[in-house]
Amino acid sequence: MLGFVLVSSLIVLGCAASTVGKRLIIDTDLFSDVDDAGALLLAATSPLVELLAVNVNYPSTYSALAASAILAHYGRTNTPIGIRRPLTNVTFFDSWFFELGEYTSKVAYHWSGGSLQWGHAEDAWDPVALYRKVLSEAPDDSVTIASIGFFDNLSALLNSSPDIYSPLPGPDLIAAKVLELVIMGGEYPSGYEYNFWGGDPSLAAHVVNTWKGSPITFSGFEIGENVTSGLRLINEGPRDDPVKAAYIYYGYNTARPSFDPLTVLYAIEGLGDLFEFGVEYGYNHVEQNGSNTWVYDKEVTSQRFLRLKLSEDRTGAEVDRRLLEATLSSQRNRSFTREEL
Q1: What is the DSSP string of 161-177?
Q2: Torsion angle of the four alpha carbons 276, 328, 245, 55, in this order, in degrees rounded to the nearest 10
Q3: Can you give the residue ranges of every domain in the chain?
Q4: What whole-number distance in Å separates Cα of residue 244 and Cα of residue 235?
Q5: Which residues make beta-bridge pairs with 169?
Q6: Digit-coded pLDDT (tens) for 18-66
Q7: Widest CA span in the chain
Q8: Pairing mode of beta strands 228-229, 256-257
Q9: What are residue 32's phi and psi, to 5 degrees?
Q10: Is 46 exposed, middle or buried (CB count within 10 Å of its CB: 0-12, 13-18, 19+)?
Q11: How many angstroms from the chain centroid is the CA of residue 197?
Q12: Contact present, 70 and 42 (Cβ < 8 Å)
């Protein structure tokens, strides 16, 4: 009886996910950390989300293919995927600590599916064309963009010209269509964080320093560094789950920092029970080397950074719960009962 109730509830959740919710685009560097996979899991299974697109800002073919595999597993086969060019066949190698494993090629191969089948990464969209198409088709002030990686795609969108999708240049298209830009990057009130300096830091500076027309919310390194998650997914998740496998491949059965899952949870739900604004005035300034400083200017109210409402341990437990529930709510996994897990 318990299994029947669980299955029935998850079918309802799966149906709810097909209704129109928050219009979300994720821009991810799905490659060198597994929290991007956790963030995709949350977005792909949330009944609150209409996932318009996923753009990949790291040019490995395996990044695009893994994104497609993950989305397909959770029933998002029609979500378009873009990736920056030129593509490479590079795989991740942890040359810093030698403790982390590679997961994107394995997930892409073993769970091949969706719009980009194994070996067909070139079929992915150009990320700027995908941005412009999706934004042009959306109602005004309706799209949230969650940036959980580098800034190549967003910088190129800002520089884009009118095309077949919209007569508006990039900045005007953004101002017309984007409700909020949510960025995982930087430290607050100041710091030097990987998403800003690890790719091309001048592009991070370009996006953060010139973005206009919609609010920006920053989720900093300090938010997720000590909020660990993933163990419940590893220990209790369905056997055939690609994100569970990704966490195992990457961290060898250890919890990981929750930078990107926290960012996407805010992008989906807003402040909710997890977050509060650390400040609601001023603006973030990024230098050409990727370092950032918050400028406390009370005349500017369009930018803010997040703080946690709960302790790091309680927040981590909540992220763990969300990741596990997300796998159980997916169309693919709804037939598992608790007795089988």
Answers
A1: ---SS-SS-HHHHHHHH
A2: -60
A3: 23-333
A4: 9
A5: none
A6: 446 899 999 999 999 999 999 999 999 999 999 999 999 999 999 999 9
A7: 60
A8: antiparallel
A9: -100, 0
A10: buried
A11: 18
A12: no
Cα separations (Å) of 160 from 83, 99, 127?
16, 40, 11
Tokens 């030097």 found at:
192
Local confidence band at 12 (pLDDT 50, 70, 90 cut-offs):
very low
CA torsion 32-188-27-226 (nearest 10°) is 40
Distance CA 254, CA 62 (A): 23
Rounded to the nearest angstrom, the gap between the alpha carbon of residue 334 and the centroid of all alpha carbons in its chain is 23
How far is 161 from 57, CA to CA, in rounded Å? 20
pTM across the whole model: 0.92
Q: What are the residues facing 293 on neighbouring strands?
A: 190, 285
What are the C-alpha distances in Å from 94 to residues 11, 98, 251? 39, 5, 11
Backbone angles phi and psi of 141, in degrees to 5: 50, 45
Q: Find out if CATH 3.90.420.10 is the number for domain 23-333.
A: no
185: amino acid identity, one letter: G
Residue with tokens 């994107």: 104
CB 327 within 8 A of CB 244: yes
**86's tokens:** 């030129």
